[in-house]
């Protein structure tokens, strides 16, 4: 399926409407790129409160530093237990630490010298790191202009008939990237706003369409209208 190029105006209208409704989301929480990376790995299949507890455990143990954390890898499962699936996530985190130290000496400055596409390929080779996590690391920890696609993005835009829910990840990412300005801050905020919309309005069952800020967005493009008419039962 080829996703269309001429959606810039429509996507920006949705963005502005969400921003005006919800305000800035101040993503991603974290005091350093390394903390953001840990958060991106731990946040899979859990809520942020649990991730935050796990990160605080690492901080309290004074291990929020790549080489130290790898040296004490035996305690990682205990420290990150609040984030759920802690055995699996420990393996992912250790996989990332091995890669990060071997290739970039555990330095974000070193990692930041590498090209985005190469970093993306490298991250995707780490067991358990998928497209969404790799792109969250690239966007939020390294400020690369990569659009993060998640379940909320798929649900919201497929309900609005802009693309099918099952379109491959990279096609959706490309769709946003060719239709939006190449702007890290815009990608940062847009993804965060979609997460908020998905959590608070576009729920899996019983979406709150009647009060949703984007329920009746229309955009005129070259004489025809793109209407954000939704089908919440998709
Ligand atoms: S109008 Fe309904 S389907 Fe569309 S984003 Fe809002 S809650 Fe979801």
Automatic annotation (TrEMBL):
Pfam families: HhH-GPD. GO terms for molecular function: 4 iron, 4 sulfur cluster binding; catalytic activity; metal ion binding. Keywords: 4Fe-4S, Iron, Iron-sulfur, Metal-binding. One of its GO terms (biological process) is base-excision repair. Gene3D superfamilies: Helix-hairpin-Helix base-excision DNA repair enzymes (C-terminal), Hypothetical protein, domain 2. Residues 42-200 form the HhH-GPD domain. It comes from the Bacteria. InterPro entries: DNA_glycosylase, HhH-GPD_domain, HhH_base_excis_C. This is HhH-GPD domain-containing protein. It comes from candidate division TA06 bacterium DG_78.
